[in-house]
Amino acid sequence: MSVKLSTRQVGDVTVVDVAGRITLGEGSSALRDALRDMVGKNQKKILLNLGDVSYIDSSGIGELVSGFTTVTNQGGQLKLLNLTKRVKDLLQITKLYTVFDVHDDEAAAVRSFA
Amino acid sequence: MRRGALTMGKNSRADTETVERFLDSTLESVDNAEEMALQEAEKAGVPEDDLHKIAMAVRESMVNAVVHGNRYNAHKKVRLSFSKSPAEFVVRIADQGEGFDYDNLPDPLAQENLMRHSGRGIFLIKAFMDDFRVRRLEPAGTEVTLVKHLVSK
To answer: Which of A2, A54, B69, B153 lies 20 to 30 Å from A27 when distance is taken between CA atoms?
Structure first.
């Protein structure tokens, strides 16, 4: 029901594979904690792979925005990869789609951090 | 899984069926309400494309009722009802909280609010439903009504 996060390193980019639901409660707090943890460890090039995210609610959107702000304020970059149609639609109607750097190809996304 | 008591099967109007439940002010109730919304909307013949939108609108409304309205108070309940008629599918969600100023909610699309952590729930509900109404309850509480038109093509 909730969210599953796993991280891997591709060069100096930390790719976070997110699966499940980013919703109020465990889902959004898990994402928040993971992003804070990464920034704390000086991992500031973060690519969130949302390909297996089935659902994001307004709380989840809030966490994406807060995560983006946190990472950016620390001099880092947070980018999004593989948005499902639902997530893309949500970011578009909330006018956030253009705020994020969104990619469909992981290798190109990783290269874009350089 | 506890879902609250089923209090009513059908109401008095011949062409409208209503199901009503009283739920605890918990996040589990939010998940349950969302699941019920999907099932009831499907039974009502809502097109598949709209099922997810209704489920999400119900989820956002339930979060508002549980978190902002009843503030997780164990003594306060959320009343949830689904009504279906040939013309529309209607969801009503009522809390026992202190209410909010619907007319003065910040616009989440305004440049100064775009990067705010919260404040998008009602905007999304309105985007996903055909009609959205807010009513103050006496002596306390807020009821929201979510409507999806069922257009026979």
So the answer is: B69
